[in-house]
Amino acid sequence: KEIVSKNFIEQIIEKDIEEGHCSSIMTRFPPEPNGYLHIGHAKSILLNYGLSKKYGGKFNLRFDDTNPTKEKTEFVESIIEDVKWIGGDFEDRLFFASNYFDQMYEAAVKLIKKGKAFVCDLTADEIKEYRGTLKEPGKNSPYRDRTVEENLALFEAMKSGEFEDGSKVLRAKIDMSSPNINMRDPIIYRIARMTHHNTGDKWCIYPMYDFAHPIEDAIEGITHSICTLEFEDHRPLYDWVVNELEYPNPPKQIEFAKLYLTNVITGKRYIKKLVEDGIVDGWDDPRLVSISALRRRGFTPESIRMFMELCGVSKSNSSVDYAMLEYCIREDLKLKKPRMMAILDPIKLVITNYPEDQVEYLEVPNNQENEEMGVRKVPFSRELYIEREDFMIEPPKKYFRLFPGNEVRLMHAYFVKCEEYITDETGKVVEIHCTYDPETKSGSGFTGRKVKGTIHWVSAPHAKNAEVRLYENIVDEEKGVYNEDGSLNLNPNSLTILKECYVEPSFDGSKAHDSYQFLRSGYFCIDSKDSNEEHLVFNRIVSLKSSYKP
Ligand code: ATP
Ligand code: MG
Ligand code: MG
């Protein structure tokens, strides 16, 4: 592998270590438990975890659960599962920001005592009006000059539940004329009577994100607090909070660009609607890019890690082609997965000169490119299924598969020659009759004549019926992701269900998420929701052809 230059975050960390700002590092992934994780979060997990490994540091999973409105325990569990699956090994370093509510309260009291925070009675609308605009400086609140004693008493009364929701807030006292609007006396605590998933009804005041987050980082000893670009303007406030609270080794915020993928939907609002409208079958529908959807589709943690490495870390927003993710899963599965014969659109082929009751068990390599994967036995008999597209009555030029009078190789088996075909009353071909030449068995060293086409097959009496689901992008960015009314412009072909597929019997014993190459048609995995011993269901992870070259 070629040596990749260090990304800008690694450069910052190395400088901090060199200059003695920290001796080892600590990073964290801080999801809000208000939804399922998606591919973008995977980038943040792998970045933070990867840095901690690279510099011999530690990595925390911390639920940033300071806003009870949208948070649910259900999400806590799915997030833990997803972080582990993707490879963000936080060991026992699992934290909840809500466990720091007492310390956050104490921090607010400390600011009040320093004259750096005040209780404000302006309404939400007034606060907005006083805040000013990018062009206009803000105006001081009339409550800004309350005494420390008064502020302490009022803040305690806020905590004790003496005031109505929304009637008072605690604000940092910074600078109403700052060019950075986030510094214009931001709200740091609000009154809200909401039941919290962890602390129940203990609190009726909750800290705001910009105040809580730096405190969480400082309490845990995070050295580098890595977040996405939209927080760049919040960094001065982050620094203000950790400095005013006088933490001995204040954490440092570093921003990087979010990962965007083409032709996918990540917005919670849109996914929720797709689920409610029954267009997708839950948050883990294989067309989505939540981590659970990627897992169900058949992506592996390795492929996602490879993808993130190819994407790199940058400071400018851009979107990455979905084809690159497909390239990574192909690369990961290519040498690891058995190559099976499966017929997605079957047509019966009868070998008229093959004995009726005979069955041969042919030895077939599991993976032609990886001998270590060994061999398996595949039954061969008089009646087979082949792909409908491998036969044509009137073939175009350069069509080397079956047509009347033509001879092809049945993969790993014999040459067969098409003698006849049978149609139904609509003219549809329902059966192909061939003769085989016993001399031509694969591996027999036969050199008498050559054929140009090789097609795959499964033995009809031995085959297992399977359902196969083929996927396309759920939206097409070239055609426009949104309609005029703001709704999603969905690709009507994003899911194709094939119910009459046949696979070799060797899938016995396969389990959810197991994946395979189906020769000539792609990589497939066993669906974790709908597949069972009686009814095999496969998801196509990706086709074999690639439109992406690294
Ligand atoms: P969403 O609204 O998509 O769920 P979020 O930012 O609200 O995203 P959080 O739970 O706050 O979700 O995110 C946890 C961490 O994941 C944050 O540090 C955030 O910066 C990071 N993150 C979220 N989306 C992306 C993305 N697309 N690319 C990289 N990191 C991301
Ligand atoms: Mg989120
Ligand atoms: Mg968020």
TrEMBL record:
Gene3D superfamilies the UniProt entry points to: Glutamyl-trna Synthetase, Domain 2, Glutamyl-tRNA Synthetase, Domain 3, HUPs, Ribosomal Protein L25, Chain P
Cellular compartments per GO CC: cytosol
MF-aspect GO terms: ATP binding; glutamine-tRNA ligase activity
Keywords per UniProt: Aminoacyl-tRNA synthetase, ATP-binding, Cytoplasm, Ligase, Nucleotide-binding, Protein biosynthesis
Residue span of motif 'HIGH' region: 31-41
EC code: 6.1.1.18
Cellular compartment(s): Cytoplasm
Domain tRNA synthetases class I (E and Q) anti-codon binding: 454-527
PROSITE patterns: AA_TRNA_LIGASE_I
Enzyme class name: ligase
Domain Glutamyl/glutaminyl-tRNA synthetase class Ib anti-codon binding: 338-437
Signal sequence interval, chain numbering: none
Domain called Glutamyl/glutaminyl-tRNA synthetase class Ib catalytic: residue spans: 25-334
UniProt family annotation: Belongs to the class-I aminoacyl-tRNA synthetase family.
Official protein name in the record: Glutamine--tRNA ligase
Originating organism: Mobilisporobacter senegalensis
